[in-house]
Design goal:
This protein is α/β, with parallel strands linked by helices. It has helices at residues 2-7, 33-40, 59-68, 105-111, 130-134, 146-157, and strands at residues 17-18, 21-23, 52-53, 74-78, 99-102, 124-127, 138-144, 175-180. The chain is 27% helix and 18% strand. The radius of gyration is 16 Å and the shape is globular. The two termini are 15 Å apart.
Length: 181
C-alpha cells in the first residue's frame, strides 16, 4: 500500500499521521515500526517530521494529541490471524484506549518471521485502543492472503465479540474492507 501511495506523488504536507502501534523495543531496531514507516513512507513523501506520531508513554498524552488534531479522519487497519486489529488482542475491551499490551502467543509466532525466532520477537507493544479506533471518521480494513480469509469472514460476518476484536468494526458506519489473495 505504501509503495502505491508513494508512486502517486501526492502532496502530504498537510497530513498528520498517528500510527496504530509500536513494539516496546529500541526505535532504531531495523524491525521497529518507527523505522519501517520512516523507510517506506516518511522518507519518500513530504510529510513533515513533526506531523508523524507514534504511541508513547504516557499513553494518555498520545490520546490528547489525537484529540488536539480533531481526531482521525482515516484509519487504515490490517487484521491478525487471531482477529486482532492494531495490537488489540482477543479479549480487548471495545472501549479500550491507547495502552501497553502483552502480545498474544499467536501474534508473537506470526511476527517472529521478522525477527528470526519467537525468542527474539517483542512480547509487548503500545497500541491504539479499539475505542480510539472506532472514533475514526472512516476505516479501511485490508487483509492479504489465504491465511487471513477465514478470520476476516468471522470478523465481518460473525458475532460481534471481544474474542474477535476486529468484529467491533461491524458497529462502525463507515468501513471499507479489502481482501486480496
Amino acid at each position: 500500500m505504501y509503495d502505491e501511495l508513494v508512486k502517486r506523488e501526492l502532496d502530504w504536507s498537510h497530513v498528520i499521521t498517528f500510527n496504530l502501534d509500536v513494539y516496546l523495543m529500541n526505535v532504531d531496531h531495523p524491525e521497529s515500526y518507527q523505522n519501517y514507516m520512516r523507510k517506506n513512507l516518511f522518507e519518500k513523501t513530504n510529510i513533515y517530521p513533526d506531523h508523524s506520531h507514534f504511541p508513547f508513554r504516557p499513553t494518555s498524552a498520545f490520546e490528547d494529541k489525537i484529540s488536539g488534531s480533531m481526531g482521525i479522519d482515516l484509519c487504515i487497519l490490517g487484521i491478525g490471524t487471531n482477529g486482532h486489529i492494531a495490537f488489540n488482542e482477543p479479549g480487548s475491551s471495545f472501549l479500550s484506549r491507547t495502552r501497553v499490551v502483552n502480545l498474544d502467543e499467536q501474534t508473537i509466532e506470526d511476527n517472529s518471521r521478522f525477527f528470526g525466532s519467537v525468542d527474539d520477537t517483542p512480547k509487548q507493544a503500545i497500541t491504539m485502543g479499539l475505542g480510539t479506533i472506532m472514533e475514526s471518521k472512516k476505516i479501511v480494513l485490508m487483509a492479504n492472503g489465504d491465511h487471513k480469509l477465514n478470520i476476516l469472514n468471522v470478523a465481518m460476518n460473525g458475532e460481534v465479540t471481544e474474542d474477535v476484536p476486529a468484529s467491533v468494526l461491524q458497529n462502525h458506519d463507515n468501513v471499507k474492507v479489502f481482501y486480496c489473495d
